[in-house]
Design goal:
213 residues; alpha/beta; two-stranded antiparallel ribbon; 25% strand; binds S-adenosyl-L-homocysteine
């Protein structure tokens, strides 16, 4: 897939800002972000900024996607669970770095459009699930890596339970939008080890009913 000049310049910017993992940079280069943004924002697809998508949600800023992916550190044989499919962009990036991605979304409309893009791009190792991220997806647990792309006041217990020993979770935590911190949680034999990485602003991980519409 050919990269545009704008895309190359975004990758260079990511490197300058500390994204040093060459596998992550390569994955960012392999995914055309313009396929995951709304028609009206296509000219901003390679600007380093979050953009609105359907259902009042957002596609994350490329730097945050790269930083979260680098912090997650998926290995080629890993199964990764993502909470918050949104546009599907983060899942598409992960698809190039691990064996399998399972991604959960509460809006059917977002799931459908993400799935359409995966098909068009020939991405076949991402499974989309309509469900509640607070509950996770027990049938395929435990997961090597779990990435949550919506903010919660605390890490959902179900997700911690579904994380493999030796596994890692990356999740934005905070009571309010102003106080969110991206946190890395490692599950070791001795328990959970938590580390704050970066202040962030994500939409909330909503509690309650799945949106079928
Ligand atoms: N990863 C996305 C960004 C997602 S924005 C991307 O790359 O574009 C966060 C997403 O989480 C939204 O689509 C929102 O609908 C979803 N979400 C919020 N609460 C949820 C929940 N409890 N279960 C599943 N998805 C949820």
């Amino acid at each position: 897939m050919g990269s545009s000049l704008e895309q190359i310049s975004l990758i260079m910017q990511l490197r300058k800002h500390g994204i040093h993992d060459t596998r992550v940079l390569r994955a960012m280069e392999l995914v055309p972000r313009e396929k995951f943004v709304e028609e009206a924002f296509i000219d901003q697809a390679y600007a380093d900024t979050a953009l609105p998508i359907a259902c009042g949600q957002t596609i994350s800023q490329p730097y945050i996607v790269a930083f979260m992916t680098q912090s997650l550190g998926p290995e080629p044989g890993d199964t990764v669970l993502e909470i918050g499919t949104g546009s599907g962009y983060q899942a598409a990036v992960l698809s190039h770095l691990c064996r399998e991605v399972l991604t959960i979304e509460r809006y059917k409309e977002l799931q459908k459009s993400a799935l359409k893009q995966f098909d068009k791009l020939g991405i076949s190792n991402v499974t989309t699930i309509i469900g509640d991220g607070w509950i996770g997806w027990p049938p395929n647990a435990p997961y090597d890596r779990i990435i949550v792309t919506a903010a919660a006041p605390e890490a959902p217990k179900a997700l911690l339970d579904q994380l493999k020993e030796g596994g890692r979770m990356v999740i934005p935590l905070g009571e309010t939008r102003e106080t969110q911190q991206l946190v890395q949680i490692e599950k070791t034999v001795d328990g959970l080890e938590q580390k704050e990485l970066l202040p962030v602003r994500f939409v909330p991980l909503v509690k309650g009913r799945v949106k079928r519409g």
